[in-house]
Amino acid sequence: MGDEEVMNASAGGNAAEGGAARPAYEPHPFIGGRTAALRALAAWRMRWPGAPRVIVLTGSPGSGRSRLVRGFLMLCEPDFRKRLPLDDMDPATVPPDLPAPAVPDPTLLTAAQVQWSIAEHFGLRATRARDIFPELAALEEPVTIVVPDVGLAGPVRAAGEPARLVRDVLTPLAAVETVQLLTSVPRELAAELAGTLPRGQVQIIDLDDPEWADPEGLVWHAANALDPALGAPELPYSTDPDARRALARAMARRAGPSRLTVQLALQSLLMVPEGFDPADEEGLPADVGEALDLHARRLGADPGTLRLILAPLAFAEGRGLPVELLGTLSTAVAGRDMSQDIADGMLLAAPFIEPVEVAADEDADDGSDDGTGTGTGTGGSRTLLRLMHPGIAEEIRAGLPDVRAAQTEIAMALLEAVPEQNWAKADPYIRDHLAAHTLEAGLLPRLLTDPGLMAHADPVTLRAAVEAVPLEELEAPARTYLRTAPLFTRTQAPVQMRAALLETAFVEDGLGPYAEVLHTLGFDLPWRTLWSVPLAGVSAVTTGSLLQEGEEAGTRPVAALLVPEGTPGSRPSPGERGGPALLVHDLLRPGYVDADPEQVLRPSDEAREAAPFGFSRGADYLTVWARKSRQAVTALISDTPFTGVDLSPDGVLVIATERGVTARQILAPVPAAEPTVPDRGTGTDDIDDTGASTHPDSPTGLEGDHS
Predict the structure, then answer these.
(1) Cα separation of 145 and 167, whole Å?
(2) Is the pLDDT of residue 635 over 70?
(3) Helix (H, G, I), strand (E, B) or coil at 448
(4) Which of 389, 510, 516, 543 has its CA 20 to 30 A from that of 405?
(5) Can you give the pTM of this predicted structure?
């Protein structure tokens, strides 16, 4: 039942079915019990004397942690609590009417994303992650934060994001004395988090412990699910209150503390009631595995077939697996054609699957973006499939003889499904999540030599997967991606810009052939990187030309680099003694030029004015624009501040940072339209190619101030 159905059912919760004494208070209409846990949470919320400042909620998969937190948050949300029968509930389970706590949802997010979402919620001004917690501690009022479903954190299941979230975010967050924290974590992480705090400040609530277990709540849940008045089919054991209550008790008794097992038994029974004997308690599941196997046998199917149908969903990443891929991947795992089994077995699998309809544009960054950040998208929607609970996935994976081998078969099948091995044509799921599958298969380093995949794949997901591989196992292209990916995620760069930034990074790292590949894959790259030198200490750059005599008579485009005195190959700067020196480099190709800096001719003002492009810059971002139309043609942002920038009249952009100097030939066409460039501010960090201050107004996007 959804929240609305639960709320509608609250008046007739069947808490006193079968002649049992009516309880003194009505149960929570969404949770149906958990009185002891709700009392502890309410005391925490009201900062009751002796109550802990931090509560760590844990339990086995399917113990009901998520449901308990959701139900408690209903009591903490001012508008939602008005819909609850608060006057009929145990007062000790109802927290006071306070402002809603902050609830950063970590589902599919990295630890860093969760940390920044907390900073954003409280309006912190921190620009570095390490400053967030001190700023939080400096707030005038204490804050309350609820972090649910830590086990669902991370865009890549095998990358260990829940542990990273506990270590890097929740542990320092819990250490802030003014933070009141409630979090739901897997059992293996609960003691680690709680162990960092003094006794009395933290409490672990393990829903599997007898103190917190809720057998009557399970009975309540099962009885309501079986009630025809609440939507169940009319069956002999559902229409009779005594029979219904007896079956609910048998289900709860058999499943122990596992709410998930009871839920799966109910799903199986209500979807396919044929062949069920309510008098046979052995026909009720004791765990998730039995719920799968008993359902299959009752339908006359092989339990192994059911598990093979569900296996791809047990390994699915993100929001779910596209329905079109289920047959292909089931066949890959099974090693035989599963198409007929799937066609005949949807009723077999139905109790354990839930479909998710998502907008096609929302499913993934589909690679069809034109690179401007606007994105054209495909419109429409698509259906994803996922298992109804992560505990089912754990059971199915645990039942496979070789998880790594299964992931290998899935990864190979996904790779073969890429049309013409062209990532621009790949299904968004394959493009964005193939790396996650190859990570668990141990094959990711072999995949990370494809520049096309690096550009097209969702950078948050691919970065998380690559970071999970030991650095010594990564080849040079993967290490280049790893240092560039933070720039992708920081700027939310579209696919064309990711390709352009990667092209430059490959040249910077001496991987020119990989950069050339990106020019052959159909990307409309705004530049071609001509050369890069790892030269530290460059404080300014100037483009110009040298007059040459002899066989190569004419002018030679060069770049003059202002470097520290004593830099190999440099010469004293004209008119300077004991100060910076100049180093001359060819403008259009790799290689220094042995020339007297006094012979370098700077472009005239007339030449610059006649040039097609100009630029404006900030500390670490830059915009190139067409002089006649004043329209931006490209922009870039650097992961390190600029120390020097110049743009030659023929469109070669030379940029120096603390890492070195790079030259890019601008390829973007000169726009024919003539809109005006937006008004620019007067900040001193933004300087155009004439020396004028031109700070853009916009604080976001590639032209925003990311200094």
Answers:
(1) 17
(2) yes
(3) coil
(4) 389
(5) 0.86
- The number of helix segments (H) and strand segments (E) in the chain equals 29, 22
Q: At what angle do helices 403-416 and 326-334 cross, to 10 degrees?
A: 130
Q: If DSSP codes are grouped into helix, strand and coil, which group holds residue 463?
A: helix
Name the residue with tokens 């930034």.
501
Domains of the chain plus CATH, in order, are 35-206 (3.40.50), 215-296 (no CATH), 301-361+379-417 (3.30.420), 530-666 (no CATH)
Distance CA 108, CA 277 (A): 41
* Rg from Cα positions in the chain: 31
610 phi and psi angles, rounded to 5 deg = -85, -10
Q: What tens digit of pLDDT does each residue of 383-432 get?
A: 999 999 999 999 999 999 999 999 999 999 999 999 999 999 999 999 99
* Residue 533: partners with Cβ closer than 8 Å, 6 or more residues away: 585, 590, 660, 661
The pair phi, psi for residue 637, each rounded to 5°, is -130, 145
71 SS3 class: helix
DSSP-derived letter for residue 207 is T
Q: Environment class of residue 245 by beta-carbon count within 10 Å: exposed (0-12), middle (13-18) or buried (19+)?
A: buried
Question: CA dihedral defined by 429, 433, 435, 437, rounded to 10 degrees?
Answer: -100
Report which secondary-structure segment, H or E, holds 112.
Answer: helix 111-121
The region that residue 355 occupies, defined by phi over 0 for left and psi between -120 and 50 for alpha, beta otherwise, is beta
List, in sequence order, the alpha helices (H) in 457-568.
Answer: 459-467, 476-491, 495-508, 512-518
